[in-house]
Amino acid sequence: MRSKVEADSSAIPAPIGRADQTLAKKRRLLQIAREEFIRQGYRAVTMDAIAQAAGVSKRTLYLWHEDKAALFRACLNAGVERFPLAQFSDAAEPESDLRAFGVALLQEFTRPSTVGMARLLMREAHEFSEFGPLIRQSRDDYLARPLAEYLVRTGISKRDSGSAAMLLLSMILAPVHNALLVDDALPDEQQCRLHVEIAVRTFMRGTERGANAAAA
């Protein structure tokens, strides 16, 4: 039988290791940096202001990110890593799989922080030539290429899978594009699901007709 001291000590959570504390600080820094970039714009933000807002020393900030451009890239990566690639599951029916992926993706792109970063990129991209390659690489690595591979793997699109993936992404994200370009209201959760349902169904019918035409 355990003693009372042993029983009590088992309920005490293990102390957080130094590595875990550092990782938590890095994540918090990126969150605060994203907020500052969105609020002030890329040009106006200073490393000093971000260090102060995050409660870290300038030395620590520059140890983690060598300059503002590197910090901004890290902020972009932190955002794209939330993209719902895990929704691709070969156990599901492809259309159901794509709907789940599309809903998760559209909901991610309607998050205030994601919309804020998108508005920032649109507003200042003409001043900073490095933005374009960063956006394209993130899109290709985290969205277009994995989606194209899934379309091939499931037999949905065996030819021009890259173009098909880009088309489906554009269809899913159309409400976000409209919000950014013409200030349409962003969809709520129910509207996201309805839009994705229509987009995926239309895409699947189009690819099916294309496959039948190619086989004829």
From TrEMBL:
Annotation: DNA-binding region: 46-65
Keyword Iron-sulfur (UniProt): no
HTH tetR-type domain residues: 23-83
SUPFAM superfamilies found in the cross-reference section: Homeodomain-like, Tetracyclin repressor-like, C-terminal domain
Keywords: DNA-binding
A Pfam family this chain is assigned to: TetR_C_7
Domain of life: Bacteria
Record protein name field: TetR/AcrR family transcriptional regulator
Species whose genome carries this gene: Sphingobium tyrosinilyticum
